[in-house]
Protein: SsuA/THI5-like domain-containing protein
Organism: Vibrio maritimus
Amino acid sequence: MALSSVIAGEIDADVIFTADIAYLARQHLLPEYRVVATVFDSDNSNAIASLRPFSTLAELENKVLCTQYLSALHFFGQALIERSGAKNVAFKFVPVSELNRHLIEGECDFITIREPFVSEFISQTNQSGFVKYFPGTFLQYELMLVHQRLTDADVSRLLLAMIDAESVLEEQPDYAKQVLMDSFSADSKQIQKLLVDSVLSVSLYQPLIALFDRERVWLQSHGLSEDSMVDTKSMLRPKPLRDAAPLRQTILDYENEY
């Protein structure tokens, strides 16, 4: 939603937070933005939901799986299908905000889902819906993009403030959990799961490039033109984090190519 609003010219944002694949699928439409950090990562934030109980992924065979096109949820669903070996799974693409409705109205057998929509789904089905998580499918990142008009010094100050905010989780855990519960409309148990399964930390590490390369191949296999893909190094802006917290930034700098 944030990316779409910026691309459509509805918002002139200085900073955007977005999932990695959502950005990669649209990076050619955001030429003035660069990745300065990842702020969240988890291998267990996405899930599969159904109105009926299911025990294995093989039960997706010959069923309709709804997801959001060229998104982290889509990549997650595709990875699960390939891992399970389920055959004849039909993909149907709808906006993420409409996934629950399509499942409840019977247009899908399964959906890919994440918070805050997991909590919404459980509420809408009066606790009768079924949700399963599959840790290890892939490590998903939340990226921080900044507009090129922001100076390195300004971005560094913002990154330092975000790093300082990480301490709230340790020093004021009850307060931090309440903020997350209010933001996600989730209960304490769901937020605790989020915190256990995720890492909320500002960083920019070299493995991100390998993930980008893997996801670029996947995006191209789903119709994104190679001409629309920007070279990975031109998407990154590691200097502000290097200046702010050098130990949190390990992107290799070959003769200042970045």
Remarks:
- The chain is about 40% helix and 20% strand.
- Strands lie at 15-19, 33-42, 46-50, 64-67, 90-93, 110-114, 130-133, 140-147, 198-199.
